[in-house]
Amino acid sequence: MRFHLFLLVLVGLCSVYAAKEESEEAVSAEAQEKEVVEEGEKEEEAEEEEEEELEGEEGEHGEEGEEGEEEEEEEVSPIDVASACYLLGGVAFVISLFYAVNHSDRDIREHSWKVISETISIFVSVLLFQAISGVFDKLLMDNMGHLVESMNVVQICIAYVEFAIFYCSLHMTMNAYAYWKNDAKKSDHVFEEKRELKMATWSKLFGHMSGFAVIRCILNLQEVYPFKTSPWIGLTPVLLNALLLFGLFRLADYIRSRPPYFVHGQDNEGYYRWEEGAEESENDLCSIGLSFTIVVAIRYMISGCLVNLLGVEDTPEEHEMTEKIQIGVLSLLFAIMSATVIVIDAMMHKKKEGENRDTGHLALVQNPESGVEHFSEYVRRWVFIGSSTLATMAAWCAMYFAKWNLHSFLISYTDFHNPNSCVARVILSMVVSAGTFMLIFLLDKLKDMDCTKESADTAIKSIIQALAILIGFTWESAFDAGVEALSELTAHNGEWCPVFVKLLMAVTIALVSIPAWRKYILPHTLGKQPISPTNDDTVPILPAHQ
């Protein structure tokens, strides 16, 4: 009995304890549920308060809120800024060209047409050159990319092969058109003008491509040891290539001055046409190639940074003010040196002519039996090349002066911090074009003064020619950035796809641009009438203001 009572008490105590635990668990569960509900209610209240605040702001502001939404929609992006630069700058530049080519001053009209012509010729020739070089570079990387140690040597060899191809193409084209027969039975006047335009077209294109091939050769050499160790040692490849071109041009003179190209006692009209076109192209390619690479070494001296094979800095940084001042002063110095060389050469040549006239000697320019020019005349030709090189160096330095200052401005006031971006290059082209045209106006006024002699006028023309090349190169750089950006959009289709797309775009642009340039722009620079689109005959130009 006592045992049963004990069990009953024990069971009761256990039930009480169990009931107590269940009640505690229930209470804790209810507390947790209550906390969750309270948190949910708080979140709902917070959301409702936010909505009420937004509604209150909209109610308070009314029309001001709608205007705020419109202002948010009108926020501009970098793409909008770039598009505005292209649109406004492009339209302003094109309209300004119409003013320039119809100016009342005949010299201004002539210089304007030359600037347009040089821009198109450099744009097309360099675009083709870089597209063809891109194919060579890709083939090199695919087939010899594992030979890292000898890669520089192979690149140098390929660069000289490219130069040889373009240089030989220049002379073969000049030879073909110089001895071109009038098989179509056109009038002699029309046929000769057509021949002259074709020779001028291809001499400029192949001359510029050869010039940039020379740049590629020298830059490849400047990238290897020991030339990359010092800016002064980096000038050694420039000197070596100048000596190479000196001998190469003389060899070309000897080749075309021999039969069947030059025959003693005959008229040799084809020889003289070939000589004139080839020498003009050789002068251009030499001044472009040597001047650019010398300025590369100068930039290395000033900034301590050696550029890559494209002529740009791999890691562009803002330049110090002293560096900008140095490159600007050098631009003025090279321009003065170029003019001085031309004036001194003209004075010495005039003095020599006077001495020959007094003694009764006839100064022979070339050998009457072979046609090759005398070595003294060949040296004088290189004096002219040196003057053109100095003038082009002044133009390059002026461009980098503008580029470095523009880079500092873009860093301070815009989001475009890369001076080699497409937008920055377009802005640079517009700035350089505007400044160059104003400088051309000033130089032309100086040339028209009575106090300037013929030699000074020649020097001014040389500087203006260098400025025309500068405008052409800056716009070509902008165009090339655009082509590069479009071609890289196809990179996901394979490594070769951007290369072929760039080559296709270059060929397409050349096929469209070259005929229009040859027929309607180049004649103005040669004092000819533009070609008629119907029968390739000449058509009159509107009367020009004198």
What does this structure look like?
- There is one protein chain.
- Helix content is 78%, strand content 0%.
- The radius of gyration is 36 Å and the shape is globular.
- The protein has helices at residues 2-61, 63-73, 78-101, 106-144, 151-178, 188-222, 231-234, 236-256, 269-303, 321-359, 375-413, 422-447, 454-488, 496-525.
- With 546 residues, the protein is mainly alpha-helical.
- The N and C termini lie far apart (144 Å).
Quick structural gist:
This protein has 546 residues and is mainly alpha-helical. It has helices at residues 2-61, 63-73, 78-101, 106-144, 151-178, 188-222, 231-234, 236-256, 269-303, 321-359, 375-413, 422-447, 454-488, 496-525.
> Main beta sheet: strand number and arrangement?
none
- Write the H/E string, N to C: HHHHHHHHHHHHHH
Q: Which structural category do the helix and sheet elements fall into?
A: mainly alpha
Overall average residue pLDDT: 77
The 3D shape can be described as: globular
Helical run tally: 14
Number of β-strand runs: 0
Q: What helical percentage do the residues reach?
A: over 70%
What is the terminal-to-terminal distance? 144 Å
Report Rg.
Answer: 36 Å
Low-confidence stretches: 1-30, 57-71, 535-546
Strand content: under 5%
Notable traits:
single chain; 546 residues; mainly alpha; 78% helix
SSE topology:
Elements lengths: L1 H60 L1 H11 L4 H24 L4 H39 L6 H28 L9 H35 L8 H4 L1 H21 L12 H35 L17 H39 L15 H39 L8 H26 L6 H35 L7 H30 L21
Helix pairs in contact: 3-12, 4-5, 4-6, 4-12, 4-13, 4-14, 5-6, 5-9, 6-9, 6-14, 8-9, 9-11, 10-11, 10-13, 11-12, 11-13, 12-13, 13-14
